[in-house]
Write a structure and sequence with these properties.
With 68 residues, this protein is mostly helical. The protein has one domain (11-64). Helix content is 44%, strand content 0%. The chain is built from three helices and no strands. The protein is globular.
Length: 68
């Protein structure tokens, strides 16, 4: 049986991003450039979602539409 934990979500990344945005008085919509570690294709997509650049499940669309 699994723990029920969502392995695609990254609470640490989400909380850290939230704190950084608050400290800088900006939001994800204000970020022009972000370099994410992407050893695996899914990693890049999940970073976009967990950093708030798009909603959960929308990272692939973000790439397809040329937003990255």
């Amino acid at each position: 049986m699994g723990s029920g934990e969502d392995i695609l979500a990254s609470p640490l990344t989400r909380e850290t991003a939230k704190e950084a945005y608050e400290m800088a008085s900006v939001g994800p919509e204000d970020v022009d450039v972000c370099e994410c570690h992407d050893a695996f294709t899914i990693g890049e997509i999940l970073h976009y979602e967990n950093l708030g650049f798009c909603a959960r499940g929308e990272g692939g669309r973000l790439i397809q539409e040329g937003e990255t």
